[in-house]
Amino acid sequence: MTSFDEAETEETVTCLHMTFYHPCQEEKMMFRCLNFSKREQVRADEMAKFGRDPNACHYNLLDTRVSRVQFSVQFYRKLNSPEHCFEIKNLSKKTKLRVDQTDLGYLNKIDLPWKCIICFGDYQILAEIQEGESMDYFETHLHLADKPILQERCLPSLQPIAENGIPSSFFSSQEKSPIEIDENES
């Protein structure tokens, strides 16, 4: 055996990519305490907390309308499974947290889908999970969006589809009103 054969394989790390947007980010600079330049490691037994209190949260949003601790993200492994997941919990008593189409009240939590949009107030966060193998820690990689995430992301499940199965976006934008078609017409 050569030393190459004996070398341990490198363990991949689960990474939570989060892209932040707020319509006033240029003027209010509420993201100036977030590190957008590199990935950060978070121990598996710690919660990643987001909010305005720098003593309670590692990820600070400098905005008086944000709760002291707005929400947390917890890394875990499903029972009897090698799969790693994240759960998100709303820690704000004043503001609901929306994860895709689900509203979370205070202390409500759900599993974070592998790709979703998290909203509260005027904040929009695109969360994407990059799978890995490490059980000791995960990484966060923060990004800044210059355009609203809700407008950028294509949500095919939210686009109305006509009874004939053709998406409404297929028809030209010239038509101003709906066209009524007899169901016996072909």
UniProtKB/TrEMBL annotation:
Residues 166-176 have a biased composition (Polar residues). GO terms for cellular component: cytoplasm. One of its GO terms (biological process) is innate immune response. Belongs to the TIFA family. Residues 49-121 form the FHA domain. This is TRAF-interacting protein with FHA domain-containing protein A. Keywords: Cytoplasm, Immunity, Innate immunity. It comes from Calypte anna. It comes from the Eukaryota. Pfam families: FHA (PF00498). Residues 166-186 are annotated as: Disordered. It is found in: Cytoplasm.
